[in-house]
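User: Hand in any protein.

Assistant:
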Amino acid sequence: MPRHGSHAFGETPFKAAGKGVAALAVLGSAFATLPVCAQETSSSDDWSFAVGGGAAIKPEFEGSEDYEIIPIPALRAERGPYYVSLDAYTLRANLVPSEVFNAGPIVNYRPKRGSADNNAVDDLENVDPAVEVGAFGSMFLNGFILNGSVSHDVANGHDGLLATAGTGFGFPVGEDIGVSAVISTTYASGNYMSTYFGIDNDNAARSGLDEYDADGGFKDVGLTLTARYTFSPSLAVTGSTSFTRLIGDAADSPIVDDEGSENQFTGAVTLVYMF
């Protein structure tokens, strides 16, 4: 959450035992690891839809020890194996006619880093919003989950590249509940790292923080736990909690090491109506 932001995430539906409506979305790390509205992949030629929303608690900025609560939307339209979904700040479309594999384009919006409760970070120059465009892929087979994505900022927010990968397991618990556990990691390019974790001479003078050069590399590892309860064929609630540990140059940045925390937590609840 990113984090303001994401690593974008892969999504994979599965059926709960005895039910065709219980499904779970498999998420990546940090902010874009919020619960989504997901329905099972269907062989029907009819359109189906889902609308919902909820709230999430997340770090105020990537590396922050202060938290904020934000609203999150969830929208989905699907026909057979194909779908388009909006989950929090992430838009994706599956273009693969398969119940095992999903793949297609992904767009993630990363809000600007502006005012912050932390005085030193608040004195840094604002970071403009980013629009990260790329592709995602995921697989769900016999409970095994594998997902990943690659995206690049096209809005000159950080002008960098992000690559995520995750793996784990998802399974039904009874007829109405599905759960999943996914571990993930994110690679960030030098442009991304210098934007969010680097401190140049000007920003050092503005904030009082030491100058710092953040190079590209793996910036985090995380664990996301998600559960979905289906009340009826048309109503479900999804809850998600995530722990992400910043590593490498991200963790060593004065923004994190001196003013924030390497440990990042997110949590969210979303109510979804399906029709």
Notes: The radius of gyration is 18 Å. The chain has five helices and twelve strands.
